[in-house]
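User: Sorry, what's this?
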Amino acid sequence: MQPTQDRIWTVPNALSLARLVGVPLFFWLVLSEHDAWAIGLLMLAGISDWADGKLARALNQTSRLGTLLDPLADRLYIFATLVGLTVREIVPWWLTALLVAREVYMTGLLALLKHFGWNGLPVHLVGKAATMNLLYAFPLLLWGSHDGTVATVARVVGWAFAIWGTALYWYAAALYTVQARQLISSLPPDSKGVAPAP
């Protein structure tokens, strides 16, 4: 029987793949201003994000592929929402710049770690919290772009999540930087910059 870590066809992986397939549909819904459907799809993606983690542990179906697909789906939804809301002028350019800059920074940090032989860093709780804040923020901001009392409340709450999420996103980047420095400093001086991946 194939080891759990190497399995591909698992229920959690299927949920993650379904979330990935939904990204272009969600992006089209946002740009075409089908907001109710876009919010519904984003909520469904959020529920499946929670479910695949719970199922992976409950069914003992944690896999290497799952650890890649899950954060990738989260990032793509955040990016798609961010671009769509920026194009529609619901989200200001400076917030987009802050979040994109963080992704560029983390890409560089992970490339540096790859050079030294590590294939990534364990997901930190702060990073997960940041992602969840942003996944809550964007549908609320989308809802808040409409008229009415409920929309006004959604806009206020959405901005609270967006500000906290962005701050936590950068704080998580700082924590990942500390982890990366600790890993690199643990290398022996004569290792020539390359260590075996854990």
In short: Confidence is low (pLDDT under 50) at residues 192-198. The radius of gyration is 19 Å.
